[in-house]
Structure formats: C-alpha cells, structure tokens
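Example 4.3 (complexes with small molecules)
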Amino acid sequence: MSTSYPKTSALMARGAEFLGSDYAILCGAMSWVSERNLVAAISNGGGFGVIACGAMTPELLDAEITGTKALTDKPFGVNLITMHPQLFDLIGVCEKHGVGHVVLAGGIPPKGSVEAIKAFGAKVIVFAPTLALAKKLLRSGADALVIEGNEAGGHIGPVATSVLAQEFLPELATEYLVFVAGGIGRGDMIASYLEMGAVGVQLGTRFACATESIAHPDFKKAFFRANARDAVASVQLDARLPVIPVRALKNKGTEEFTAKQREVANLLDAGTVDMGEAQLQIEHYWAGALRRAVIDGDVENGSLMAGQSVGMVKQEEPVASIIAQLMEQSEAALNRH
Ligand SMILES: Cc1cc2nc3c(=O)[nH]c(=O)nc-3n(C[C@H](O)[C@H](O)[C@H](O)COP(=O)(O)O)c2cc1C
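Answer. The structure with flavin mononucleotide bound is encoded below.
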C-alpha cells in the first residue's frame, strides 16, 4: 500500500485490498470510453479500471480482455449489463480469462448470475437503488456495493449521492464494502465519503477525457467547455414507457431522444412491440448515440453522457496525474479535518 497518502490509504485499506489496487478508486465503466487503453491506464496508475462490456458480443469482450491484459498486469474488472441477452455467455468469457471482479449493472442481477460469477472465484460488485435491495443482494452473495447518486453521468437514479450516502453508509459500512459514486470531482469529496464509512469511490466523468481515453477530441472539448448545469437528465415523455433517465450534456441529440421516445411509444400503442422490446430499443438508441459522440466525434447529434462534475474537467490530463490530484486533495482534507 502507498505511504504517500497515509490517512486516505488507511481509510481505503479495505477497499484497496478487495480490489487488489493501490487506491480504492474505481473508474466506473463507460460504454465506448472504458476500453483497453483507459482501463489499463487506470489500473497501471494505481486505481481500478473496469471494461464496459455494454452491448458487446462475447467475442468482442474476449478480445477486449485479451487486449487489456496485454497493456497491464494489474487487476481490472468487467462491467456487464444485466439485461444483455447473452449475459451468461459473457460471464463465461470472464471465467475463461480469470477476471477477478465482475460488476453487474443496469438492473437487478438475474437468477443464477451472482452464483455463476462466484463459482469461478471472482468477486461480484452490484448496484442497488434502495437500502432494502442492497441488503438483500449483499446477504445473498454480492461482495461489494456501489451506491450511485443522481449527479452521475449516464443512466441515473432519482436520489442525490449525498442523501444515498447518509442512508446507506451508517447501515452497511461496518459489515459490508460500499463504494460511493456520482458527482465526485475532487479528493475533498472522497475524504468525506471515506470518513462516513465508504471503503472507496467510483468516478466516471473525471476520467472520461484523460489523455489515455480514446474519446474523440471533439467529445473531450465539449467536456472542457461544459459547466455543471449543462449536464442535464433526460425527460420521460410518456408515463407508460418507463425509460431510465440519462444525464448528458444538452445538445440536439437530447431533443432527438424525445422524438425517439415518441416513436417507441407509438410502436407500443400499435402493439408492434412489447414493453421489454420497447425498453431494449431505447437502450440500443443510447448505445448508438454515445458511440456517435465518443468515437465519431458527432457532438451535435450524439450523446455526450456526463455527470455534474463535468465543470471540474478542464483539460486533458494523464490518468496518473488525475489520481495523484484526487489522493492529494483527499489527504489535505483529512489533515484539515
Ligand atoms: C460517458 C459515460 C458512459 C457511461 N456508461 C456506463 C456503462 O456503460 N455502464 C455503467 O454501469 N455505467 C456507465 N456510466 C456510469 C459510470 O460508470 C460511473 O458510475 C459514473 O460516471 C460515476 O459518476 P460521475 O460521472 O459523476 O463520476 C457511464 C458514465 C459516463 C460519463
């Protein structure tokens, strides 16, 4: 363990041991962004990188894990979306590679998924929107929990990180491993959540534009220009179509999403699709829109998923420098407290 940041490292000790990293700082999986280069850079920098599987096929995930292993010998994780139709095949790919940590995101883990991951010795990290569900998942085998507040980039829940932290940490932090995500831009905030009992944190927005991130230069420029208030949550158009809100920088694509919802709601009305298919179509829309922005650099029509901490992302910086800043700020805050 690092001795450069003794107070922060002491509070992160359980989290860092669990992850096998120097610092209990996860870079949350970001579809298209969290591929081999960023993931390896995070893990090489002392944090914990997580591959975003998103809508990848098992073959693509296989290649991405192989590619990441070629760039780092440090531990990293794989984030799988629970509604992926080939979830169990993807778990099989993780098993083949001996992945140490699998993050199950996007919904309640389907029956048998947690068991299938634990069966090959990997740790399971889950999200939970309510305290009751968090307790249920942790009691039934999940190894760690991420609580993610509404300030985060990407798909979001309705409650702020500050409130989730107050609700979940006093109840769970002694017995279980809890990481906090959403809206973290500086180490001062990390220090506060650690003091409340979190064993570590997860950031996405702050790392999305790191030098090692393959995101298009125009995607990065949009982040550098944006303020917190530009990262807005999508609006649900139709009460019958329960779309999960997504936080992204406001652009023409934000409006196109409204049109997409209208289109899918009409298909629902016509009986052309059922609810499950309707929701899948919405998720495919997001994956495509995010790709347009991250890979093609279409910052007008694509989706610029970003959290409210985007206002603290001002320039391209190497991952190691971002991690060092976060740790220094956390240590300074703990020394002040
Ligand atoms: C561009 C972008 C894409 C994301 N994609 C995913 C994803 O595919 N799966 C997932 O579980 N979370 C995703 N997230 C959420 C992050 O993993 C992370 O939890 C979140 O960014 C943390 O909050 P912050 O943005 O305030 O740091 C995404 C976030 C961003 C900014």
